[in-house]
Putative GNAT superfamily acetyltransferase (Paractinoplanes abujensis), 273 residues
Amino acid sequence: MSDLLSPTPAADAAARAAGVEIRVLTELAELHDVCRLFDSIWRSDPADPPVTRDLLRAMTKAGNYVAGAFDAGGMVGACIAFFGPPGRREMHSHIAGVGRAAHGRGIGYALKLHQRAWALDLGVHTISWTFDPLVSRNAYFNMVKLGGRPVQYLPHFYGAMTDGINGADDTDRLLMRWDLTAPHGPLPAPDLTGAAVALDRGPDGDPVPRPVTGRTVLVAVPSDIESLRRTDVACARRWRVAVREVLGSLIDGGARVTGFDRAGWYVVERADA
């Protein structure tokens, strides 16, 4: 990777390219808008919202990160993070989202670069967050565009979530760590030469585990798990279990996830090969 711009100019350039202004938020009205935006994205049960205005108010008063992305129509994206143990110089990015009408403009990328510049300015070296390992586009974004690395597989991490994205599925997550001090830039496509398939896609769309002995292995995920949850709940459940058993077991055994191919494969280097 190459860092063509320092963190703040890189963040400013990404915001301009996305057609937004990104700023840290503290006012009650803006914090309320964050809550409304997230409610519209996750379509949550009103009794169990992703965040609340009073929580955001307390977080910002304590110096944590709440930022919004704005275009001419108002707030189109937001991101929330809080500090970890002081000695680790780390933040945890809890939730980020972009309104559906603003998808495809690079707003999520601009928000993450803004968060990176803000954190580095305060002496933070690492940002962690969790994401659903079955969501292919998020895996590509987190690992290839940002350069984060999964470090832990977390089965059913949040318990049951009643929203329009997770549905009735278990909330398995990968814990990412993003080294903010590393040079920033897109990762090259991984070299899959000689890689063995540990979890494949069958002709009917089902997951197919395969025995492997090589050092580099590939773990497939569905091309669109969110659509699959709506059209074939049982198949989506089989993918959840298969990825947990294959990818989770590899990570628990010391394997490193080193890349993600755009075709929907985690690239994993086994420690015991």
